[in-house]
Design goal:
Blueprint lengths: L5 H9 L3 E4 L5 E4 L4 E3 L12 H6 L3 E4 L3 H8 L13 H12 L3 E8 L2 E11 L2 E9 L4 H15 L4 E5 L3 H4 L4 E3 L1 H13 L9 H8 L3
Parallel strand pairs: 7-8
Antiparallel strand pairs: 1-2, 3-8, 3-9, 4-5, 5-6, 6-7
Helix pairs in contact: 1-4, 3-4, 5-8
Function: Functions in the N-end rule pathway of protein degradation where it conjugates Leu, Phe and, less efficiently, Met from aminoacyl-tRNAs to the N-termini of proteins containing an N-terminal arginine or lysine.
Family: Belongs to the L/F-transferase family.
Enzyme class: transferase
Length: 209
């Protein structure tokens, strides 16, 4: 099989599939049924997160160290865990990032990257891939800012692929594959911009909701 490219990723996402690597690096394409999504416009920060946001414990940046976010996400969570984010996947998504279609939201303390997430933006759909944290709440803050940006820019779909406890706490629900494809096609027809300048505006307007 030829090496995974950014064009392969684009083709996959617009057709409802995405790649993951096996332990030996072999790539497989997935199209879960049901599919996990997070409703964008009903999201609000949890009561426990609001004090963290108000204290401004983290500096939030967008797209300043995309590859490093991916490499942190690729680190196994435990000695018994493995990663689906292979070097081949990192290279392809980094290429997609250089094309302006893959993005990262990052959290810093004293200039050190301590948390973040990355995903792909096509049309008004955002495909969340993975997140990491090195200190408590770092990834939750990154996710909050992602959601505020998606709301502000009128994104229609946030795909989180598989349901698990991590995404369920952010409001993820499962929908049939056929419904997902319908929502995907609709979101791809509408243009939306994934932009950073709204961050400070969003902080002032949503941290204390």
């Amino acid at each position: 099989m030829s090496k995974l490219t950014a064009d392969d990723l684009i083709y996959g996402y617009i057709n409802g599939i995405f790649p993951m690597a096996d332990a030996d690096g072999t790539l497989y394409w997935y199209a879960p049924d049901p599919r996990a999504v997070i409703p964008i416009h009903s999201y609000k920060p949890s009561h426990s997160l609001r004090p963290i946001l108000n204290k401004k414990l983290f500096e939030v940046r967008v797209d300043t160290d995309f590859e490093q976010v991916m490499r942190n996400c690729a680190i196994p969570r435990s000695d018994f865990d493995s990663t689906w984010i292979s070097d081949e996947i990192i290279e392809a998504y980094t290429e997609l990032h250089r094309m302006g279609l893959a993005h990262s939201v990052e959290t810093y303390i004293d200039g050190r990257l301590v948390g973040g997430l990355y995903g792909v933006a096509l049309g008004s759909a955002f495909f969340g891939e993975s997140m990491f944290h090195q200190v408590s709440n770092a990834s939750k803050v990154a996710f909050h800012y992602l959601m505020m940006m998606l709301q502000e820019q009128q994104f229609e779909l946030l795909d989180t692929q598989f349901i698990n406890d991590n995404v369920r706490r952010f409001g993820a629900v499962e929908i049939p594959k056929a419904e997902y494809i319908r929502l995907l096609k609709s979101a791809l027809r509408k243009k939306a911009r994934f932009t950073e300048p709204v961050l400070e505006h969003l902080f002032k307007n949503h941290a204390g909701d």
